[in-house]
């Protein structure tokens, strides 16, 4: 057990960390273009934050949170999602006093849920996400959906389907829940155990059940019970999506699993060999900030699981190629040459060239072999003859050609060759 990761977790090894960095870079680039700035919140929060924000009646709070008492006997929870912490930070830092909207994003945010590990779902997972506070118009709903699409496509994940719904506001939802309970009451005995538990505390979630879905095809739709304000917001969202050329389908079954959602909810879905897979989900949470003790402030956001994105990339064969570890590798023979090699590696790195030399006391032949395994573009040799002549022997590993360069010019030569190659 000592050398085995806990169930539901996984290591990101040096050989695959570039996959994460690539996804993070796309997220940062897309968000920067739209004026979003990064936020980083603690890995754990006071448990009450999630009880009040996410909701006591949700599966996340009821069954999935990692909660413990710290040494001060305070109830602490490893965060199961990113929105509640961002809202807490928005309130605590008085960001509502700044010009609004406040547009934030996070990358590879760790989150924790105790649930059965399965493909694309871990107990410690990571999310890229966006949170916007203080923007009431449906234009921002459409904006974050477009940004999510841009991130996914920028990571090579295409063939995306957008499904949208509105779950209304607390006023019109209360009236709808009466209709839903009346519809479900005669069917309660035939529902799965989980849905029977949800009937009183969270009946909306029953619509999201995969087991009972066939028996609920004629369930009343929230869209038919929207108040004028919520209906108008949803119509505006559809208009903005049409204007952006984003296709969508209306799915009255989308309710999302957290209590803070209001009005717009959406999912972005891609097809896999195992069926449809949701790679991004989000929606509005116009009452969350006020629920947590802040001023009435509307909000909206989304989250996308990094592990799921990597899984889909692998399935579709669109994973980015691993970057070369080194541009140049310096091979040396003898103590004097090693000293000079250390200086040359330092010069190369200062010139912006990824470089290293042998630290394992290998033979010159073994150093060349190692440089080849590391896919170094150039191998620079410093041995007795080169030291005497004041030169460095440079081998282009792709072309198989060699030349001698004055030792003093070696770093700038490699830098310029790499630069010229990139320009071509």
Helix vs. strand class: alpha+beta
Strands across the major sheet, in which order?
1-5-6-11-10-9-7-8
What is the domain total for the residues? 3
CATH hierarchy, class of the largest domain: Alpha Beta
The share of residues in extended strands comes to 15-25%
- Average pLDDT across residues? 93
Name of the CATH homologous superfamily of the largest domain: Bira Bifunctional Protein, Domain 2
Secondary structure layout:
Blueprint: H1 17-33, E1 37-38, E2 44-46, H2 47-55, H3 59-64, E3 66-69, E4 75-78, H4 83-92, E5 102-112, E6 124-133, H5 138-154, E7 160-166, H6 170-184, H7 193-201, H8 228-244, E8 249-250, E9 262-272, E10 275-284, H9 288-291, E11 299-305, H10 306-316, E12 328-332, H11 335-350, E13 355-357, H12 364-373, E14 378-382, H13 384-389, E15 391-396, E16 401-406, H14 410-423
Parallel strand pairs: 1-5, 7-8, 12-13, 12-14
Antiparallel strand pairs: 2-4, 3-4, 5-6, 6-11, 7-9, 9-10, 10-11, 14-15, 15-16
The gist of it:
The chain is of the alpha+beta class and 424 residues long. Helices cover 38% and strands 23% of the residues.
What report would you give on this structure?
The protein is an alpha+beta fold. The protein folds into 3 domains: 243 residues, Bira Bifunctional Protein, Domain 2 (BirA Bifunctional Protein, domain 2), CATH 3.30.930.10; 47 residues, no CATH class; 96 residues, Anticodon-binding domain (Rossmann fold), CATH 3.40.50.800. It contains 14 helices and 16 strands. The strands form 3 sheets. The chain has an 8-stranded mixed sheet with strand order 1-5-6-11-10-9-7-8, with helices on both faces. The chain has a 5-stranded mixed sheet with strand order 13-12-14-15-16, sandwiched between helices. A 3-stranded antiparallel sheet has the order 2-4-3. α1 packs antiparallel against α5, α5 packs across α8 and α11 crosses α14. The two termini are 52 Å apart. The model has no long low-confidence stretch (mean pLDDT 93).
């Amino acid at each position: 057990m000592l050398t085995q990761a806990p169930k539901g977790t996984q290591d990101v090894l040096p050989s695959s960390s570039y996959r994460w960095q690539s996804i993070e870079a796309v997220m940062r680039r897309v968000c920067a273009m739209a004026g979003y700035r990064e936020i980083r919140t603690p890995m754990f929060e006071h448990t009450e934050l999630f009880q009040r924000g996410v909701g006591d009646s949700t599966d996340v709070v009821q069954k999935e949170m990692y909660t413990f008492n710290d040494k001060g006997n305070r109830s602490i929870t490893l965060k199961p999602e990113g929105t509640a912490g961002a809202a807490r930070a928005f309130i605590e830092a008085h960001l509502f006093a700044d010009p609004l909207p406040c547009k934030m994003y996070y990358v590879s945010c760790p989150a924790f849920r105790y649930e059965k590990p399965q493909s694309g779902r871990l107990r410690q997972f990571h999310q890229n996400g966006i949170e916007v506070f203080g923007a009431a118009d449906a234009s921002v709903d459409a904006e974050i959906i477009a940004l999510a699409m841009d991130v996914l496509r920028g990571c090579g994940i295409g063939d995306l389907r957008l499904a949208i719904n509105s779950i209304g506001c607390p006023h019109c939802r209360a009236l709808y829940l009466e209709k839903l309970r009346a519809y479900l009451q005669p069917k309660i005995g035939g529902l799965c155990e989980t849905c029977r538990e949800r009937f009183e505390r969270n009946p909306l979630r029953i619509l999201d059940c995969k087991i009972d879905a066939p028996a609920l095809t004629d369930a009343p739709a929230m869209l038919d019970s929207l108040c004028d304000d919520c209906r108008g917001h949803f119509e505006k969202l559809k208009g903005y999506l049409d204007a952006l050329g984003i296709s969508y389908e209306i799915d009255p079954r989308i309710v999302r699993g957290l209590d803070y959602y209001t009005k717009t909810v959406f999912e972005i879905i891609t097809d896999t060999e195992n069926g449809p897979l949701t790679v991004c989900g989000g929606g509005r949470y116009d009452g969350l900030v006020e629920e947590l003790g802040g001023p009435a402030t509307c909000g909206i956001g989304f989250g996308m699981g990094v592990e799921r994105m990597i899984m889909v990339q692998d399935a579709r064969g669109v994973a980015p190629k691993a970057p070369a570890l080194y541009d140049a590798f310096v091979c040396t023979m003898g103590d004097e040459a090693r000293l000079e090699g250390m200086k040359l590696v330092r010069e190369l790195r200062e010139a912006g060239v990824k470089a290293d030399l042998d630290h394992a006391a290998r033979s010159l032949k073994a150093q060349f072999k190692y440089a080849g395994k590391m896919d170094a573009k150039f191998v620079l040799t410093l041995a007795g003859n080169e030291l005497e002549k004041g030169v460095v022997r440079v081998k282009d590993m792709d072309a198989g050609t060699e030349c001698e360069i004055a030792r003093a010019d070696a770093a700038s030569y490699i830098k310029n060759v790499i630069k010229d190659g990139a320009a071509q």
